[in-house]
Amino acid sequence: MKILHVTKKYPNAVGGDAIVVSNLEKQQKKNGHEVFILTTNCDDILNKPNVTKFGLKDNSQHLDTITWRRIFSLIGLYFRSKKIISQIKPDVVHSHSIDMGFVLSSACRKYNIPIINTFHGGIFSITDRDKKRSFIERYLIKKAKFKVITTPNKKDLKLAKGVYNNLVYIPNGVDLSKFKNIKHKINKTPKILFVGRIDRLKGLDYLIDSAKILQDKKIEFEIELVGDGKDMEMYKERVKEMNLNKKIKFLGRKSPEDTLKHYQTADIFVLPSLDESFGIVLIEAMACKKPVIGTKVGGIPYVINPNKDGLLVPPKNPQALADAIIKILKNPKLAKQMGEAGYKKVKENFTWSIQVDKTNKLLKELVK
User: Which residues are CB-neighbours of 226 under 8 A, at least 6 positions away?
Assistant: First the structure.
């Protein structure tokens, strides 16, 4: 089977969609499928024989927002779409971006090629946060006429019932082979880890405020932020103004291998997002047997089982976040139990081999 993945991001651009597409590609090639990638014109993205880039050159940090540069690129893609599809001749197109999928859908219909879409953001769960985006996405979904829509978000699966009858739940995963030799380090100063984009949507304002609360309570801790993003300098300045320089360290972007080392040496993993479709970083931390703390938004409550493998806190609540951190730090036995339970959950439910089998089965049915 010849598969074309359509995605805003692809390694080495940072993002959950890049991780998902990369792992699908890897596993699908192992299964004997021919895989192609159509993605944005970004220097962070690898140049490979099976990768086609389109549009104006852009920065990976801007790909999650609609800019004039992105709009012009999508218009250009529309006029190139039939040529791209006719040259690659895929058996199926798997879109990971609603707008890109919409632009390609006309060419797919012309050549009678089924197209599916995977949401890496909420369909309905973003409505309260961004009504304009939600309205536009629903309109594009309707016009694109995707054969199937998959989502890693069980919340959207419930909310969409009766509206999108072709919606299928397929969660994200991890490659457990990378976590075989899990190393644990006893830290003199407890280490709290965040991995992700450095921007407001990830709730870093509230993580920084919680750090101030911990400092005022004379709690020993250190926070490591792994990642890059458009708000990096703003947050560095804020940390400096709050006299938290010795407590919060901005480590920047790291390779997957180095990021794994940071997971392994952390005591707690925290994801204080304001919106999160799934949170791959949560299951990566769980695969390293770490207790996790997440906010009650999007798909996070369907990943974390409170008091079993982690803790859930309300979003935008630094006091609740600080209290959760203190609870785990003061209960080493609980932390260990959470870590073991999280690893078991990942092994049974969130491996790429499981998710790719589900995806491949779906694609084969469409091609038939």
Answer: 193, 194, 195, 196, 251, 252, 253, 254, 259, 262
| Residue 347, token pair as written in the block | 């092994």
Measured distance CA(92)–CA(78) in Å, rounded: 18
- Give Cα 165 distance to the centre of its chain: 24
Residue type, 252: G
Average pLDDT in the 90-108 region?
A: 96
Tens of pLDDT, residues 245-302: 999 999 999 988 899 999 999 999 999 999 888 889 999 999 999 999 999 998 899 9
Quickly name the fold that domain 176-349 has: Rossmann fold (3.40.50)
Contact 82, 107 (CB under 8 A): yes
Write down the pTM of the prediction: 0.88
- End-to-end, the C-alpha distance of the chain in Å comes to 11
Which residues neighbour 297 within 8 Å (Cβ) at sequence distance 6 or greater?
125, 273, 274, 275, 276, 315
Neighbours of 193 (CB within 10 A): 26
The single-letter code of the amino acid at 232 is M
The number of angstroms, rounded, from the C-alpha of 222 to the middle of its chain's C-alpha atoms is: 24
Q: What residues pair up with 84 in beta bridges, in sequence order? A: none
Task: Give ranges for CATH 3.40.50.2000 in the chain.
Answer: 2-173+351-367, 176-349
CATH (residue range 2-173+351-367): 3.40.50.2000
Can you say whether the dihedral through the CA atoms of 19, 45, 78, 99 is positive or negative? positive
If phi > 0 it is left, if psi is from -120 to 50 it is alpha, else beta; for residue 127 that is: alpha
Distance CA 305, CA 191 (A): 22
Using alpha carbons, select from 330, 339, 291, 281 the residue that is nearest to residue 311: 291
The dihedral sign for the CA sequence 42, 47, 51, 54: positive
Residue with tokens 């709290």: 192
Residue 187 has pLDDT above 80, yes or no: yes
Residue 51 CB coordination number (10 Å)? 16
Percent of the chain at pLDDT exceeding 70: 95
The stretches of 145-279 forming alpha helices (DSSP H) are 154-159, 204-216, 232-241, 256-265
